[in-house]
Amino acid sequence: MKKIPRKTITRVLLYIRTLEGLLKEKRYLVSSKQLSEMTGLSDVKIRKDISNFKSVGKPRIGYRTLELKKTLQDFLLQSNTVHLVLFGAGNLGSAILKYPGFQQGKIRVVAAFDVSRGKIGRKINGVRVYPVERAPEIIKRSHADIGIIAVPKEHSQEVADYMVLSGLHRIVNFAPCSISVPAKVQVRNMDFTIEFLSLFCDSPK
Amino acid sequence: MKKIPRKTITRVLLYIRTLEGLLKEKRYLVSSKQLSEMTGLSDVKIRKDISNFKSVGKPRIGYRTLELKKTLQDFLLQSNTVHLVLFGAGNLGSAILKYPGFQQGKIRVVAAFDVSRGKIGRKINGVRVYPVERAPEIIKRSHADIGIIAVPKEHSQEVADYMVLSGLHRIVNFAPCSISVPAKVQVRNMDFTIEFLSLFCDSPK
DNA sequence: TCTCAATCGTTCTAAATTTCACGAATCATT
DNA sequence: AATGATTCGTGAAATTTAGAACGATTGAGA
Fold it and tell me: In angstroms, rounded to a whole number, what is the distance separating the alpha carbons of residues B118 and B203?
C-alpha cells in the first residue's frame, strides 16, 4: 500500500467529519458532487482521494454514507482513540480542553500540566491538571500520542524539550514561535497570527 | 508582478516573525542557512521566497535583518493593521482575544459579539463585547477585514451568513464544521480535531 | 593583490499535485 | 429491452512546488 500524503489525510478527515454530519441528518447516500459542494473541494479530487483506499461507490448512485465513513476511518484510525496531553492550562489551554469536536470520541485529552499552584489539582472539563514534574510518568503510563504546547512563548522551547525527554514524538505548538526538536519528532505549528495575516494578505481587495 | 501563492505568503509571515525575534536579540545579520535552522525550511526555498520580492542579500554576508523584515512586510502588509471582529465570546473566543501574538500590532480585534446577556457590555482584554445585532453597523464603521467564528457549530452557518450580510469577505471558522458562503468570500477552517488527527495519522509509529 | 571560502540568486530538473478527459457501470424511463 | 442520463474510477496532461546544481559576488586572510 502506497503512502498517503499528509494533505490527503487532512482532506479525508474532512470527509469523515462531513459524512458524520450527513448521518445525523439520516442521509444515507451521497455523491462526490454533493461532497464537493459541502467541502469546497472538487469532485474529481474527492473521488481520487477515496479511490486511494478501495472502491466503495456505485455509479449513478454515489456512496453509501456509513460504508464510506467506515472505510475511511478504518484506514486512517483503525478505530483507535488519539491520546493527548496538554501543557499549559491557561486561557487557550482551557479552551482546547473544552473544544466540542473532541467530545465525539477519537480524541481524548488524558492530562493537563501546569506550573501554577492555583491550577494544579483542579479539573477542567473532566481533565485533571497535574504539576509538570509528573509529565514523564503520566505520559508513559497513558501512552499519550501527541503533546500540545499552550504555554507562553518564553517557555515553549523548554516545554518542547521536556516533551521529547518524556517520550513524545508529536507536538502541536500553539505558541507564536518556532521550536527546535530532533528530526524524529514531528511538530505542527498553529500560530493564529500567521493564519489571520495570511488570509488577509492572500487576496487584498 | 506575479501573484504570490498562499503557501509562500504563509512562509514569508514566518520569516517576519523569525526576523522580529532576531532583532530582539540584536542580531542584525542573518543568512538563509540560519533562517533555515530556525524555521525548519530549506535554505534554497528561503532564498527563493525572498527573491520573489527583491534582492536584498549580500553574498558571503547574508541579509540585514531589519532591511529584510521591512522588505517582506512592506510587500505583504504595507504596514497596515488587520482589523478583526470576533463572533462568540466563550472559552475559545476569550482565548483568542488574549492571544499574545496580537499584542505586537499588525492585528487588532476591534469588537466581539455574543448573544449572552452576561457577556454583553463586558470587556475582555480591552475588547468590548456587543450584542450581535450591532455587528453590521460596527463592522462597517471599523472597516473590519476578517471575521472569526468561535460560536457553537450549531450556529456557525447562521453567523457566517450574518457576516457576509454585514460586508465581511474573509472568515476564519474555528467551529468543527463546514460553512457555505458566496464564492467571493474566503474561508479558512481551523478545526483542532482535524489538525490533531492528521498529525496522528500522518506517520503512525 | 590574489586566492579561498561562504553565501546569494537563478536556471534547470524532478517530484508532487491538480485538472482534464473519457470509458464503464448503474438505474430510470419509454 | 433499449436508450439515456448520471456518476464512478482512472490514465494522461498540465500545473505547481520542491530540490539540485552552479555561476557570481563579497569579504577575509595570506
Answer: 45
Residues of chain B with Cβ-Cβ distance to A10 below 8 Å are 194, 198
| A38/B188 CB distance under 8 A | no
CA angle, residues A64, B157, B102, in degrees to nearest 5: 120
User: Straight-line distance from CA A168 to C1' C3, in Å?
Assistant: 50
Give the distance from CA B47 to its chain's centroid.
23
Q: Do B10 and A198 touch (CB under 8 A)?
A: yes
Helices and strands per DSSP (H, E), number in chain A: 8, 10
Residues 18-37 on chain B lying near strand C, CB distance under 7 A = 31-33
Nucleotides of D under 7 A from a protein CB: 5-11, 16-21, 24-27
Q: What is the mean pLDDT of each run of 10 residues along chain B (205 residues)?
A: 87 97 97 97 97 90 97 85 97 97 89 98 98 98 97 98 97 97 95 96 73
> CA B47, B49, B53, B55: dihedral to nearest 10 degrees?
0
Query: What are the cell numbers at B33?
Result: 542557512
Q: Is B198 helix (H, G, I), strand (E, B) or coil?
A: helix
pTM value is 0.95
Contacts of B17 in chain A (CB under 8 A): 176-178, 191, 193-194
Q: Which residues contact B44 (CB under 8 A, 6 or more apart)?
A: B32
Among A104, A101, A11, which residue's Cα sits nearest to residue B191? A101
Beta strands in B14-95 (DSSP E): 29-30, 63-64, 82-87
**Chains A, B: CB contacts under 8 A, how many?**
162
